[in-house]
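Checklist before submission:
- one chain only
- standard amino acids only
- sequence pasted in full

Submission:
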Amino acid sequence: MSGNQIDLGQLFGQVAQTLISNKSTLNEADTHNHDHGDNMADTFRMIATAMDQKKGASSADQLEYAADLLRSKKSGSAQLYAKGFANAAKEFVGEDINTGNAMQLIQTLMGGGASASRSADANPLGDMLGALMGSGASSASSDDELDIGDLLNAGMAFMSAKQSGGSNMEALMKALVADTEMSATPHRAQSSQLILNTLLDVVGGMGAK
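Returned file contents:
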């Protein structure tokens, strides 16, 4: 699917701004070190800067450069995103990221390093995003139908989130990250939901232009 090419520096710069705005809340959610918000804001500022430094290079080279920088960071979240960016770099060799294939990038990054080309059982987030957003970039399986187990898990996560309050979109974000490594801790799940929501908003806005 073709589309408008995406400025990755702009895309991840928007994510960084979201995380900066929510630093205090994320720090409070981190009951262990109380610095998750600071770490995530710094991580995505680094990513946005990396994309700008490699502007004009291929999408794969930009993604791999960001992965290299993230590997130098000590935080567990940064290491998860390093895996995601490295896998995305492999998936986009010879291909630019645009509004038509951006969902594949989001699937890989938010799957905690799971490639979007892995099976639906291994990466339920991929099929969830592909089906819900109508991107055509769902994880590789012979059909576009969601596995019933994935639907049940997502439905349970959605209902649980709704029962605890919040909008439909907030509940959906929680459901989408519920079965990924990004949900290993409450503060990591919270930042992942913010990142996912921002990525979808920015890509959706670019696609509407």
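Reviewer check: Confidence is low (pLDDT under 50) at residues 118-124, 133-146.
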